[in-house]
UniProtKB/TrEMBL annotation:
<dbReference type="GO" id="GO:0047911">
    <property type="term" value="F:galacturan 1,4-alpha-galacturonidase activity"/>
</dbReference>
<keyword id="KW-0964">Secreted</keyword>
<protein>
    <recommendedName>
        <fullName>Exopolygalacturonase</fullName>
        <ecNumber>3.2.1.67</ecNumber>
    </recommendedName>
</protein>
<comment type="function">
    <text>May function in depolymerizing pectin during pollen development, germination, and tube growth. Acts as an exo-polygalacturonase.</text>
</comment>
<feature type="active site">
    <location>
        <position position="254"/>
    </location>
</feature>
<dbReference type="GO" id="GO:0005975">
    <property type="term" value="P:carbohydrate metabolic process"/>
</dbReference>
<keyword id="KW-0134">Cell wall</keyword>
<dbReference type="GO" id="GO:0004650">
    <property type="term" value="F:polygalacturonase activity"/>
</dbReference>
<dbReference type="InterPro" id="IPR012334">
    <property type="entry name" value="Pectin_lyas_fold"/>
</dbReference>
<dbReference type="InterPro" id="IPR006626">
    <property type="entry name" value="PbH1"/>
</dbReference>
<keyword id="KW-0732">Signal</keyword>
<keyword id="KW-0677">Repeat</keyword>
<feature type="signal peptide">
    <location>
        <begin position="1"/>
        <end position="21"/>
    </location>
</feature>
<keyword id="KW-0326">Glycosidase</keyword>
<dbReference type="Pfam" id="PF00295">
    <property type="entry name" value="Glyco_hydro_28"/>
</dbReference>
<dbReference type="InterPro" id="IPR000743">
    <property type="entry name" value="Glyco_hydro_28"/>
</dbReference>
<dbReference type="GO" id="GO:0071555">
    <property type="term" value="P:cell wall organization"/>
</dbReference>
Length: 428
């Protein structure tokens, strides 16, 4: 196969394809057209690249009216090897990808030259991905190539497992994402996305394997899902607004995070996020806002609510970190003074100028459970733009070691509202 064809196979389902003849198989459900990938040459032997067969099935379905389905049957112990594919719209009607079998990514990164995603949906309006199947990213073959956890100026692995790009009115439900090479599910430039009852799993030491990453998108819901991974269970990036995360079980991982923000110029604001009714267990953070030091673009974060959340043996259950930098090379240069809830004063090392990201109107309500760190509430804001309008209400976080009280720490917090039970005592 030519090198270009070994890269992303790009499907152009434009208006001209609507005139193509469709091979219609009646599913017995009101005449709905079902396109079985095995009828287009797909083989579940774990060795044959099935990307062409999948794209042929999508092309036929995309040109068919009446809510067609691309069907990937189960195959016992077999699996479908799938090289990077782009399922592109617009299509003639609502599309369904029904995955009952196991899709497996190629090992390593050789097949991903020129590609940023494994399974990419682009410019589709009306999409359902379901079926009880598994997207196996085979991340263990690529994680050793990822030096980003150790090196600041690294090259990100271009291998998100499932990507929704410029998609509208889409639902992913009832599927499993396993061992992604990089992010599991990414929602970018999209609107009206529902991720419901999905299972996401990767080892706790797998690098940059965020469960669901959302950026540049509006009206996104992540609900009733289980995420166990090596990075953020859910991460909300620049340009995200009107996002809800509820009923999510998170852990292991790095918690549920906004950010990181402030590293790159021109980042858009994050507004109106609600995280509720979640359980977070055994993670390195609970609910977190993280922004890089430095930067000149004043990105704003506002209208965030974290409520009704249970923490179980979580480090940093509540944290705003505007000095975020995971690399040892960052920890130099200047100092930040902080004040704890009991009046204790401390000093931390800070690199570069303070973060330019503005944080305001953030509420933490009814958050309870066990903290694995004595500092259970850390509100570490920017000297250049102190946090405003913070709320702590009904917080009950006990230290894992009985008899030792938890603490809160604040830096550059310009007032706020507190109420109800407050364990640890508020530092606002």
């Amino acid at each position: 196969m030519a090198p270009r064809l070994r890269g992303c196979l790009l499907l152009l389902a434009m208006a001209s394809t609507w005139l193509a003849a469709a091979d219609v198989a009646d599913a017995g459900g009101g005449g709905r057209a079902v396109f079985n990938v095995t009828d287009f040459g797909a083989v579940a032997d774990g060795e044959t690249d099935n990307s062409r067969a999948f794209l042929r099935a999508w092309t036929k379905a995309c040109a068919t009216p009446g809510r067609p389905t691309v069907f990937v049957p189960g195959a016992g112990d077999g699996s479908y090897l799938l090289h990077p594919v782009v399922f592109r719209g617009p299509c003639r009607s609502f599309m369904e990808l029904h995955v009952a079998g196991v899709l497996r990514a190629p090992p390593g990164l050789a097949a991903f030259r020129g590609c940023r995603e494994w399974v990419h949906f682009s410019s589709v309006d009306g999409l359902l991905v379901t079926g009880g199947g598994t997207f196996d990213g085979r991340g263990s073959t690529a994680w050793p190539l990822n030096d980003c956890p150790k090196k600041r100026d690294c090259k990100l692995l271009p291998t998100q497992s499932i990507n929704l790009g410029r998609v509208r009115n889409a639902t992913i439900t009832g599927v499993t994402s396993l061992d992604s090479k990089f992010f599991h599910i990414t929602v970018a430039g999209s609107h009206g996305v529902r991720i419901h009852r999905v299972t996401i799993h990767a080892p706790r030491d797998s690098p940059n394997t965020d469960g669901v990453h959302i950026q540049g998108s509006t009206d996104v819901r992540v609900t009733d899902s289980a995420v166990a991974t090596g990075d953020d269970c859910v991460s909300v990036g620049p340009g995200a607004s009107d996002v809800e995360v509820s009923g999510v079980t998170c852990g292991p991982g790095h918690g549920i995070s906004v950010g990181s923000l402030g590293r790159y110029p021109g980042e858009e604001d994050v507004r109106r996020l609600r995280v509720a009714n979640c359980t977070i267990a055994g993670t390195s953070n609970g609910v977190r806002i993280k922004t890089w030091r430095g930067g000149s673009h004043p990105t704003a974060v506002s209208g965030l609510v974290f409520e009704d959340i249970v923490m179980s043996n979580v480090r940093n259950p509540i944290i705003i970190d505007q000095e975020y930098c995971p690399y040892a090379s960052c920890r130099h240069e200047s100092l930040t003074v902080w004040v704890a809830g009991d009046g204790e004063v401390g000093v931390s090392v800070q690199e570069q100028r303070p973060s330019a990201v503005r944080i305001s109107d953030v509420a933490f309500r009814n958050i309870r459970g066990v903290s694995a760190t004595q500092v259970a509430v850390k509100l570490w804001c920017s000297e250049a733009s102190p946090c405003r309008g913070l709320e702590l209400r009904d917080i009950d976080l006990r230290f894992v070691k009985r008899g030792v009280a938890t603490q809160s720490q604040c830096a550059h917090v310009a007032g706020g509202v507190v109420g109800g039970t407050l364990v640890p005592p508020s530092c606002i």
